Amino acid sequence: MSKHEMISRVENDKVLVLERVFDAPREFVFKLFKEPEYLKRWWGTHGWELPVCNIDFRPGGVWHYCMKCVDQNQEEYGMESWNKTIYKEIVEPEKIVYTDYFSDKDGNINEAMPAPEVTMEFIDLGAETKLVSRSVFDSEESLQAVLDMGLLEGITQTWDRLNELVETLKKN
């Protein structure tokens, strides 16, 4: 397995841990998580875009966004998925802690869906950055529900897109 592949594991039955190394300095990778013009270029799976990306990047701030399937070859074509992230803690360029919610276009949280608390750690490896994501769910069942929805495949594609953007921006 190459160091640039995502590693995933479950801890304590309800914590999903994801790790991947990106070939860019920590400050550079961190910036791609906070600025809408970058998020729009990589957030989401292949064939999905962010037509709405409203971000207030500060503790207590909200990132409200819509992912829309624009790939006519996917059965989800035309579908929208709204999400709302509420930032709890930001230590630039080391860490982002937030709660991740499913929502509607008005930002109303869908209480029926799992809402993990996510800690993203950006570990400085010099010319590289190790990204470690820890998503804490309220129960084993909540974690299993999102895994059954394809969460791992989705995050793998999303982080692949992040890696493609890192490589593209490094060339410029």
TrEMBL record:
Domain of life assignment: Bacteria
Protein family (similarity comment): Belongs to the AHA1 family.
Family matches, as InterPro entries: ASHA1/2-like_C, START-like_dom_sf
A Pfam family: AHSA1
Activator of Hsp90 ATPase homologue 1/2-like C-terminal domain sequence ranges: 23-167
Protein name (Swiss-Prot/TrEMBL): SRPBCC domain-containing protein
